[in-house]
User: Fold this.
Amino acid sequence: MNKRSLLAMILAYVIPGAGHVYLGYRRRAAAFFAIIFLMFVIGLSIDGNLYTLERGQPILRLLASLGSMGAGILYFVARAMGPYGDITSITYEYGTTFTLTAGLMNLLLVLDCFDIAEGRKQ
Assistant:
């Protein structure tokens, strides 16, 4: 792995789409940022939960926490702004799924940046 790949991956994780901008794929980056940002915001707006790391939690909840954190700066800003997820809301599960999917999708985009930077795809 070269320095270019590592920097692209870090940028892609921190800000969705930033790794693609760094690699010169601006239109793709804009689309990816819009998709992940909208999914994350919609998830929060319909009472979705943000999973957090806690001691003694089951392994699936740990994996969900890591998946949610995949949204990068969006996750950490949202966590700092306050608690989310009203379990009594009828849209709670949908919102949680949206936020989790946004994080997992961003993690896939980190891998996409790696492949592009390494010359495995365009």
